[in-house]
Amino acid sequence: MTTTTTTPPEDPPASPPALTLLFHRARANMRQYGMLIALVFLVVLFQIWTDGTLLLPNNVSNLIQQNSYILILAMGMMIVIIAGHIDLSVGSLVAFVGAMAAVLMVKHDLPWVPALLLSLLIGAVAGAWQGFFIAYLGIPSFIVTLAGMLLFRGATQIVLEGQSLAPFPDGFQDLAKGFLPEVGPYTQYHNPTLALGLCAVVLLLLREWRQRTRQLALALDVLPTGLWVARCTALTAAVVAFTLTLASFHGVPVVMLLMGGLLLILGHVMRNAVVGRHVYALGGNKAAAQLSGVKDKRITFAVFVTMGVLAALAGCVYAARLNAGTPQAGLNFELEAIAASFIGGASMSGGVGTVMGAVIGGLVLGVLNNGMSLVGIGTDYQQVIKGLVLLAAVGFDVWNKRRAGR
Amino acid sequence: MTRPVGEPLPTAGRPRPVLEMRAITKTFPGVTALCDVHLTVRAGEIHAVCGENGAGKSTLMKVLSGVYPHGSYGGEIRFEGEPVAFKDIRASEQRGIVIIHQELALVPQLSIAENIFLGNEQRSARGTIDWNATYREASRLLERVGLREKPQTPVAELGVGQQQLVEIAKALAKEVKLLILDEPTAALNDQDSAHLLELILQLRAHGVSGIVISHKLNEIRAIADSVTILRDGRTIETLTVRQATSTAPELSEERLIRGMVGRDLDHRFPDRAPYRGEDADQVALAVGGWTVRHPVDHRRTVVDQVSLTVRRGEIVGLAGLMGAGRTELAMSVFGRSYGQYVAGTVAVGGREVDTRTVPAAIAAGLAYVTEDRKRYGLNLLDTLQRNVSLASLPRMRRHDAGRRHGMRGFVDEHHERRVAEHYRTALHIKTPTVAEQVGRLSGGNQQKVVLSRWIHADPQVLILDEPTRGIDVGAKYEIYTVIGELAARGKAVLFLSSELPELLGMCDRIYTMAEGRLTGEVSRTEATQEVLMRHMTLRRTTRNGS
Ligand SMILES: Nc1ncnc2c1ncn2[C@@H]1O[C@H](COP(=O)(O)OP(=O)(O)OP(=O)(O)O)[C@@H](O)[C@H]1O
Ligand SMILES: [Mg+2]
Question: The pTM is what?
Answer without folding.
Answer: 0.83
